[in-house]
Write a structure and sequence with these properties.
Elements lengths: L2 H10 L4 E5 L11 H9 L4 E3 L1 E4 L5 E3 L22 E5 L2 E5 L7 H4 L25 H15 L4 E2 L2 E2 L2 H6 L5 H10 L10 E4 L3 H9 L3 E6 L14 H4 L2 H8 L4 E4 L19 H7 L3 E2 L27 H10 L4 E4 L2 H12 L3
Parallel strand pairs: 1-2, 1-13, 2-7, 3-8, 9-10, 10-11, 11-12
Antiparallel strand pairs: 3-4, 5-6
Helix pairs in contact: 2-4, 11-12
The structure holds SN-glycerol-3-phosphate and calcium ion.
SN-glycerol-3-phosphate binds next to loops.
Length: 343
């Protein structure tokens, strides 16, 4: 184990975690039971469902409530009239929205690959949109089969938007988790949000750990016009976050930026500042394709080809992060274990 990783692990009492971002979404269509199951089989410590509600208030796993990018809804004549233009977090968006579909209707759709220009599409059309309850049942089944504890890392998507249209996420999320036995601070759950006020509200609703997501420093939480993400990662901002959350989930360049040549530069002080405030640091998103990697970790020139994701993950672990979100959790687990051995 490197000195830095050992120091972080000793301080926080745990080795860095690997969070399967939208499941093993580098290998299977994101946010499907198949993607989560593969992530668990690849050794992920946590699986990450992004959550949005259906018209009848059921939480389902999608990255956006607009679902034409990850399902076949646009090809379904029976749903053509459901196309809408809605304003989500201040921006107009046209498409098909989960809040206009009952769960029974949504279940007729099938998932597809989000980025076919980079990833295989052979599994398009095979998998349903899963509910949170189905994901929890999968976790229980895999825990029983493997003897491993598998964590949940749900994200509330657009929480103030959904509260405003009468479909709040927090109550069904906390109730569904509690019904499955997750309610203590020590349970393997982190609830995440890019917004502030719903995390503050969740802090009063549950002991489960909370993570403040940090987006583009030029932007800010959709529920707060007066504060930006850049201010939230100052020592003062981190102290404010620590009043209601247990960790931060920053975009990875806030931990290690890229230099003018597109290579990893020196780490910022964010990890040290966050740890000083008592916060864990789980950056996103680590992906194996050259397209996403820093130039010093690309292998060859094909943007679809796999580069040295393990090397990138190791660089972040050496910078002291407490976990990583990855579309390729199998690679990240191997990197974590190899990096700890000093490779
Ligand atoms: O939740 C961590 C990361 O997933 C945040 O980004 O847009 O992929 O949900 P996004
Ligand atoms: Ca997410």
């Amino acid at each position: 184990m490197s000195t830095l990783i050992a120091l972080a692990a000793a301080m926080l009492g745990a080795q860095p975690i690997v969070i399967a971002h939208r499941g093993a979404s580098g290998d299977r269509p994101e946010h499907t039971l198949a993607a989560y199951e593969l992530a668990i089989d690849q050794g992920a410590d946590f699986i990450e469902p992004d959550l949005v509600p259906t018209k009848d208030g059921i939480l389902v796993a999608r990255h956006e409530n607009e679902i034409s990018g990850t399902t076949d809804v646009a090809t379904r004549p029976e749903f053509a009239a459901r196309k809408r233009t809605r304003t989500i977090d201040g921006a107009p968006m046209t498409g098909w929205f989960t809040e206009d579909f009952t769960l029974a209707e949504l279940k007729r759709l099938r998932a597809k690959e989000r980025i076919p220009q980079l990833r295989a599409t052979a599994l398009d059309g095979q998998f349903e949109v899963p509910t949170l309850e189905e994901i929890l049942a999968l976790v229980k089944r895999k825990e029983a089969a493997t003897g491993r504890r598998i964590g949940l890392y749900p994200e509330t998507k657009h929480p103030s938007y959904f509260a405003a249209i009468g479909l709040p996420l927090e109550e069904p999320l906390v109730a569904t988790l509690a019904a499955a036995g997750y309610h203590r601070q020590t349970d393997p759950v982190f609830i995440q949000s890019f917004e502030i006020d719903n995390l503050r509200r969740l802090d009063g609703m549950t002991e489960l750990r909370l993570v403040q997501l940090i987006g583009d420093p030029a932007s800010g939480p959709a529920d707060r016009s007066g504060i930006g993400y850049a201010a939230m990662v100052t020592p003062q901002g981190l102290k404010a976050i620590a009043a209601y959350a247990d960790g931060i989930g920053p975009e990875k360049s806030a931990v290690i930026p890229r230099d003018a040549d597109g290579k990893l530069a020196a780490p910022t002080g964010l990890v040290a500042d966050a740890h000083a405030a008592g916060l864990l640091v789980h950056p996103y998103t680590f992906r194996k394709e050259n397209y996403f990697l820093p130039n010093d970790f690309k292998v060859g020139a094909d943007p679809r080809a796999a580069g040295d994701l393990a090397g990138e993950v190791c660089a972040f672990l050496k910078a002291g992060v407490d976990g990583v979100f990855s579309d390729n959790p199998g690679v990240a687990v191997k990197a974590r274990d190899g990096c700890q051995l000093g490779n």
